[in-house]
Write a structure and sequence with these properties.
Layout (H helix, E strand, L loop, with lengths): L4 E2 L9 E6 L3 E3 L4 E4 L2 E4 L4 E2 L3 E6 L10
Antiparallel strand pairs: 1-7, 2-3, 2-7, 4-5, 5-6
């Protein structure tokens, strides 16, 4: 997994891409930020997820498969 880090090390207040396990592993298609109240989406709404990994959010230039 390209640049993925364990969720326990996720930084606060930064745009991140999260990976979740829901039957299979997949990356969320929207930015999230870690906050004191949990995970917040790029729209500012709380997201009820249990992510397993994180990486810095990369725009469309992120290579496929990474």
């Amino acid at each position: 997994m390209c640049n993925w880090q364990p969720i326990q090390s996720a930084p606060w207040g930064r745009d991140l891409q999260l990976s979740v396990i829901e039957g299979e592993v997949h990356a969320l298609a929207f930015r999230c930020r870690r906050s004191r109240s949990g995970w917040i989406s790029d729209t500012g709404k709380r997201v009820d997820i249990d992510p397993s990994h994180w990486r810095d959010w990369a725009d469309k230039d992120q290579p496929a498969g990474c």
